[in-house]
Amino acid sequence: MNAVRKDIRRRTKEELRSFFVEHGIPAFHGNQVYEWLWQKAAIDFDQMTNLSKAHRSLLSEYFVINHADLDQVQKSSDGTLKNAVRLHDGKIVESVLIPTDTRSTACVSSQVGCSLDCTFCATAQLKRMRNLNPDEIFDQVATLNRQSLEAYDRPLSNIVFMGMGEPLMNYPNVMKAIEKITSPEGMGMSAKRITVSTSGVPKMIKKMADEYPRFKLAVSLHSAIEETRNSIMPFSDKFPLTSLKEAIQYWFSKTKERVTYEYVVWKDINDTQEEIQALVRFCKHTPSKVNLIEYNPIGDDSFAQADATAVDAYMRELSKHHIPVTLRRSRGKDIDAACGQLANKSI
Ligand code: SAH
Q1: Each residue of 4-55: pLDDT tens digit?
Q2: Ligand 1 nearest atom to the CA of residue 220, by list position
Q3: Distance CA 95, CA 73 (A)
Q4: What's the CA angle centered on 338, arms 282 and 255, to 5 degrees?
Q5: Which residue among 46, 64, 82 closes a domain?
Q6: How far does residue 246's CA lie from ligand 1's centre (Å)?
């Protein structure tokens, strides 16, 4: 029987309503099921307590809920939680809950491994194994939401697509998941609280600007000098900085929202005045802010965090030109949950 049971979460609300009607049962039960699946993130038909036992067992005759399972939870000394999530085919992705005094931010994965090849990132070393489907992205968020409610008595306040993978290389599935997360019939979260972080795929930035202008955009820049950027992010030789710049300008024209540049300062790579000036020039093309990220070591000697004086020089120069800049301290480093460290090390 198992082989023919279909994943119920692939069904629209209309299809669920018709399913009941075909079995001589009033259609409104389809709405109830839809609510259980997407508003309450049910993973078992028995949780659907406003349905009769007979209706629940009818559902389980025809359907399964192919949900992702929590395989392991690690807790950092700073309160950050890292989940290893086991997918229905046994593959594992990681997602992270980052609490502050007032917020709970979910950092979620979009691919198993990554399509791109940033040389400083642990996930890139896994290569891309596959795209996540919309439910697998939704499940990560639903699990982190539950954990935030349990631990802090509040739901998620923000979601960032800064986990494993490149979200814009899995655009349709990421967007389908976000639709469920933001829909009033789903988790009802505001689109403004969702940040899509990309290594910079110009065509897809433009597409997102056209289709989903309410999200926040973060671009992992790391250098505004072509040669340097290509050397640490080899895929970017296909996407020159001029087309990235043009895509970001297009994004701004549609959204009127500042873009955030994520930027790590590395010793002997981008810790020079020339790099700082190039970044300042790049930032002036479009309203933007810069998020300087601490480097999280991944066991490769060619990368090391720059000296504090170099980071200070970046801060000073950007501020002098009225470009907002923040220095982001890493969270969850002790459990390899920080940016760029997600690589299923624990398994
Ligand atoms: N692929 C997307 C999202 C995942 S990476 C992107 O590139 O934006 C999330 C952020 O972590 C990116 O800014 C990425 O450049 C950064 N990052 C990757 N490896 C890192 C490391 N070892 N230390 C610090 N930041 C890293």
Answers
A1: 899 999 999 999 999 999 999 999 999 999 999 999 999 999 999 999 999 9
A2: 13
A3: 10
A4: 40
A5: 64
A6: 22
- Look up 275 and say whether it is catalytic: no
Question: Is 212 touching ligand 1 by the criterion CB < 6 Å?
Answer: no
Q: Dump pLDDT digits (tens) for 114-153.
A: 989 999 998 888 876 899 999 999 999 999 999 999 999 9
Mark whether 24 and 99 lie in a shared domain.
Answer: no
Q: Write the single-letter amino acid at 102.
A: T
- 17, 73: one domain: no
262 CB within 6 A, ligand 1: yes
Among 340, 273, 324, 289, residue whose Cα is nearest residue 117: 340
Total of domains in the chain: 2
Name the residue at shortest CA distance from atom 9 of ligand 1: 162
Q: Is 269 in the pocket of ligand 1 (CB under 6 A)?
A: no
Q: Which domain holds residue 13?
A: 6-64
The C-alpha torsion from 310 through 313 and 314 to 319, rounded to 10°, is 160
Calculated CA dihedral for residues 11, 12, 17, 20, nearest 10 degrees: 0
Known catalytic membership, residue 94: yes
| Burial grade of 280 (CB within 10 A; 0-12, 13-18, 19 or more) | middle
